[in-house]
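Subject: Interface between my chains keeps coming out wrong

I've been trying for a while to get a sensible model of this assembly. When I model each chain on its own everything looks fine, but I need the whole thing in one frame so I can look at the contacts. Pasting all components below, labels as-is. Any help appreciated, I'm running out of ideas.
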Amino acid sequence: MDNAVFVGIGELPAGRYPQRCFMGDLVAVAHLALDDAGLTPKDVDTVVLIPCLHSFIDQADLVFSRVVEELGLSKQVKSQFMVHSGGSTSDNAVRAAGSLLCAGEADTVLILQAERWGSAPVEAMIDTLSFNGIPLEWEIPAGQNFNAIGALITARYMYETGSTPEEMAGICVALRRWANVNPNAMYRDKPLTVEQILASKMVCEPLHAMECPMMADGAVGLVMTTPDRAARRGQDAVRIAGTGGCVSHYSLGQETDLARLGWPKAAEAAYDASGWGPEDVQLAEVYDSYAAVMAIAFEGLGLAKPGEGARFIAGGETSPGGSLPANTNGGLLSGGHTGVGGGTALLAEGVRQLLGRAGPPRQVPDVRRALIGGTGGSYMDAQVMMLERVDARGTGGVPATKAVAATGGTR
Amino acid sequence: MNQLAERYDEGLRGGTLLIQYCDACGQPTMYPKWRCPSCFSDALSFREAQGTGTLYSFTVQHHTAPTAFADQQPYALGIIRLTEGVQLLARLVPDDTGGWSAYRCDGAVEFCPVPPQPPTDQGPTAGRPCAWFWLPKG
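Reply #2:
Try treating it as a single job with all components included. I did that and got this:
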């Protein structure tokens, strides 16, 4: 992905916003992202759309170029299409957009996502969540659903690692600390304690209500272009140093390694591609729709020792001021679960941090290298992306490993 | 439903858990598939499972079940590793306590040929059976 960089992001607050609307949010984040990149809609030649799950009618609008018309891009845009792999869509959307830029098929790509989960009727959403991405023939008749999927993974993870309920709840608290400094997070103004979580009702053993993600409205836009164009405009940018992926299963009942999933294989590929090691990662933004999902990823990515993911995160290592800041927007669990957009928000936060635009007190000082981890469906895949800041003047892409200490002070 | 699911369901309704085997390479496959995922042969047939295995992971659902299953709460779901080396998602029969506290990860479980509860009569899989497992007797 040597010929593709991020130059701008836009985001609307996540939460419950019944007064906002789907197309209005898409147009708003498109302009926010383009403004952030110092561009206008006139610069865009390709639009990549990340699907919504709240409505198939709205999703069809994404497929059939409504956004192009709404943005005033008719007869200007060469190509617009939707990419969909559930929660890992943003990773695959970047894979698609980046490949088009590298192939010379696109000059400037606008990636857009909006979701209305927070304002949709809850029962209908629970049912949608139960019949999408779960095999109708083999698992639905037993009553399978996404909280049960999270619980089955969590139960096995706790059994294999000896992680306690307090440690699992501690991950949620660690995420909340970041949400409390993110004005776009759903739970920006509510603190959270382990005691509160363990006192909340048992939903799906061992998951308590406060360990299940809260569905939210949200919208994110990203702008990608070629490094030449970014350099000509004098823009700071973020390059993709390497990616890796592993699709491990469709039905959760078929996954043979619940406490590891596809992470080790995806991580190995991404580290190989980038030339990085886990010690080069200064910031991680890793899918966290349940605490165990994040802990498992951290171990597979080599960011925590095997079996120690939950204790590492609950112990504060990823919290503000910790050794490895992670999910600095509050993640899905505290930032808000915006459907397919949860991973998109983590990606946008990683780019925002690398561009130095997170603002105090959330901005991680001197951060140049970030790891983005995504997964979709019943945690069917593991997607890893290594991102690196490229300064407007001078070089990004300095040789990886052990160069970290020399890169301080730039922002 | 397709022919594979119909055949599998027919087995469950008769108190039998079926595993698909490849006639060419002998590989067992769960869930039933159109081609052998190992050697890609389309010659596949069903055989009765031994009905023994271990519980890989399980959960008890108290809230947030899909509406078609809301009346059945609480219910327990488990991933079963069958002796034959394949896996499936199943319901767990309540233990002697009336709950599921006697179940353990990696503990032995057996196929229960007579489910203690009928399938849900609502939703997209209304009336369709699922496999149930319980703790070995004695």
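Reply #3:
Confirming on my end. Strands of chain B lie at 18-22, 28-29, 44-48, 52-61, 75-82, 87-92, 108-111, 132-134.
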